[in-house]
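Appendix B, example 12.
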Amino acid sequence: MSEKIKLVSWLLILGYSAMTLAATEEEVVVVKRSAKEIYADSSEANRIDKKFDIHYTLIGVDANSVSGQGLTFGYFVDRNKQILVEAKSGKGAVTRYRYESYNGVSKEWSTDAQIKQVGFHYKHFVGNSFYYRVGGDYRTVDYKYDLSGSFFNDVSSSSFKSTAIIGSFVIGNQWQWENFTLGCDWIGLAAPLTYSISGDKTPTSASEKADFDSDKKLYVTDSSGILLRFYMGASF
């Protein structure tokens, strides 16, 4: 009986000691971060430690068939993320001309759209050079539809002004050398989130009004594609 008591006592003492040791022993946790391999002289490697870039869009089709030229300033949050501020100004890409002649007299129509916009965008590189870009632009349009000719010496014009907030999403590639940047927004989609039209002066004839309304949709109200906006600049 005494042997059993001794065995039980020893087991209790060992158990208590183990519990006491476990309670007083601190757990050491080591967190390891896996390393990512980046090829030397790749675009991603050349973006490391860059803080700013500036580039000019040379050619391309912007939202609502507007020519894509403009200046962009970028801030690198890190090597794969950028905040962009963009400013553009120019004419609409679509201009209509008509000419009619009757018994030596003529009429001519033309359209003109002056467009300005500024926007903020977020760019995320998901590969060495491939990225997606999402953001919005504030755009103003000053549009005129002019009619002039020698039918009864008539001269008339129609016009409107508009403002709009345009949301856009594009994908592209941007290649980075030491300080030189070359890229292209390959394809994208833009849509007006909100818009207003003022100073609306509508033509009187049905055919002219149809053209006028079509241009309103083209420059203000319709969703549209973005295509092949090539740009170049510098990063530092």
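The CA atoms of residues 70 and 223 lie 20 Å apart. DSSP finds three helices and nine strands in the chain.
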